[in-house]
Write a structure and sequence with these properties.
three-stranded antiparallel sheet, five-stranded mixed sheet, Beta-Lactamase, single chain, alpha+beta, about 55% helix, Helix Hairpins, 4 domains, about 475 residues
Length: about 475
């Protein structure tokens, strides 16, 4: 526990002298006079006169300039009244004593001025040392603060301990500030902005018991330094909170990916086995009835659908793990389109598929497996939302420095204003449509596109439907031997 100390007196604030100070100065002159009494007749009067500036020096160092000047005039009067003949009167019989009195007064006043100046310098140095010590203590306490409440308590305690003042912090942009300025008091004597290196963190309001302190330049400099320390602490606490929140989000994301990965691995094998057993049941004698065949067919479709969802979760976990290594080779995009359409042929039986690929498309340097997965997800998404009997159009063309692959459908179109949200995980375009899925397909497409340095975007199709476009950078494909550039 820190020992309580009195508030620091401000520089430039004159001490409040009272009658006791002047009585103390009178006592010092009387003490010198008592010392001089046994010396009368033994040493010259001029030498006795030189003892009285000691009282002036003492008064200046201990009591201040006012009592020192008073003791200077009192010393001259005492010397004249008690030691210069005729005694016990202020009458001067010898004119030469007037010169002695004048010299004594000048010496005493100069002594008072110099000693008072030294005292003020000493007091100012002590105040600066006390302020520096107070700032060091505040900086030490603030460095250990981890919350806004702790910083606020330190500010209140430090101002009260150092100056007998009170303070409140109002954070920048805070909607609710329960520890804001005193509502039942006058306006603050000083309101200082809390300028931190990155931005202003709020204001510091200070209420002084003695408003005259606010006019002291040294006190103003202290408050500015104090406010800077508080602002830096607030900014440090802010970024600690941001770092903690970011760490929590990263940990949550890792846990989610780990759970997806583990769950996908555990489900994929039994689902594949279930789909295989359903196929086997169809071919196992005796022949199944129509009702039994319908049940087996539904079982097979559900198993395949769940297996596809598990595969997408695996792909998403692998893409977000940060450990994905692309195996890029120069590939013709026509092969990836054909492979994606063949894999989805059972699901495209209710739709008309039209392909429009530009002739002589250049090679692109891609991971063939990932690009085929991206194209398959785009086509599957169109088949999922487009009504049966409508046309799905697949196109590929060169646009500027990119190869653009587009899938158009004649479905309900895109939700207005949510085109970018569709590529986030677990976001579906129309959840009320009853289409199966977990909202991972387009997120996988986006991750694959960004891994290849490309992008994917969604746009409405005229007159109805939606268009999804995957853009891949062309690069500089190798040329066959013997061909010039």
């Amino acid at each position: 526990m820190k020992t309580a100390r009195p508030p620091i007196q401000d520089a430039g604030q004159a001490p409040r002298w009272h009658l006791g100070s002047y009585l103390h100065a009178s006592a010092s002159v009387a003490a010198v006079a008592l010392v001089c009494v046994p010396l009368v007749g033994r040493i010259d009067l001029a030498n006795l006169a030189m003892l009285f500036p000691l009282a002036v020096l003492y008064s200046a160092l201990r009591l201040g300039r006012g009592p020192a000047v008073f003791s200077a005039f009192l010393s001259v009067a005492t010397l004249d009244f008690f030691f210069v003949p005729p005694h016990l009167t202020l009458v001067v019989s010898d004119v030469q004593y007037l010169l002695t009195f004048l010299v004594l007064l000048v010496v005493a006043l100069i002594t008072a001025q110099l000693a008072a100046g030294l005292r003020e310098q000493r007091d100012a140095a002590e105040r600066r040392e006390a302020l520096s010590r107070a700032l060091n203590e505040v900086a030490s306490e603030l460095s250990a603060a981890l919350t806004f409440e702790q910083i606020h308590d330190i500010v209140e305690r430090s101002l009260q301990r150092t100056f007998g003042a009170r303070g409140r912090i109002a954070q920048e942009g805070a909607r609710d500030n329960p520890r804001g300025p005193y509502a039942d008091e006058r306006a603050a004597d000083r309101v200082l902005p809390l300028h931190a290196p990155m931005r202003t963190r709020g204001t510091l309001s200070v209420w002084l018991n003695d408003p005259a302190r606010g006019r002291d330049p040294e006190f103003a400099r202290f408050l500015e330094t104090f406010a800077t320390l508080v602002a830096i602490s607030l900014e440090r606490v802010h970024y600690i909170a941001v770092a903690n929140q970011t760490e929590i989000e990263i940990t949550s994301e890792r846990m989610r990916n780990a759970m997806l990965n583990a769950l996908s691995h555990d489900l994929r094998t039994p689902l594949t086995a279930l789909a295989g057993m359903a196929e086997t049941l169809k071919m196992t004698p005796p022949a199944l009835s129509e009702k039994q065949m319908s049940l087996v067919h539904g079982l097979h479709e559900q198993a395949v659908m769940m297996s596809d969802q598990v595969a997408k979760m695996l792909d998403m976990a692998r893409l977000q793990s940060g450990k994905l290594r692309l195996r890029c080779e120069w590939q013709p995009i026509e092969e990836a389109v054909g492979a994606a359409l063949r894999a989805l042929s059972p699901r495209l039986t209710g739709h008309r598929v039209r392909t429009a690929l530009e002739p002589d498309l250049p090679l692109v340097e891609v991971d063939a497996v990932l690009i085929e997965s991206a194209l398959r997800n785009l086509i599957e998404n169109a088949a999922k939302y487009a009504p049966a009997g409508t046309t799905i159009t697949v196109t590929a063309a060169v646009h500027e420095a990119c190869l653009e692959f587009s899938v158009e459908d004649e479905g309900p179109g895109l939700p207005a204003g949510r085109e970018h949200e569709l590529f986030e995980m677990f976001v579906r375009g129309d959840a009320s449509a009853g289409s199966p899925g977990a909202g991972l397909g387009l997120a996988i497409v986006k991750a694959i596109a960004e891994a290849h340095g490309g992008q994917v975007r969604a746009s409405p199709r005229v007159p109805a439907g939606a268009r999804f476009t995957l853009s891949l950078p062309l690069g500089h494909p190798p040329q066959p031997p013997g061909e010039s550039s």
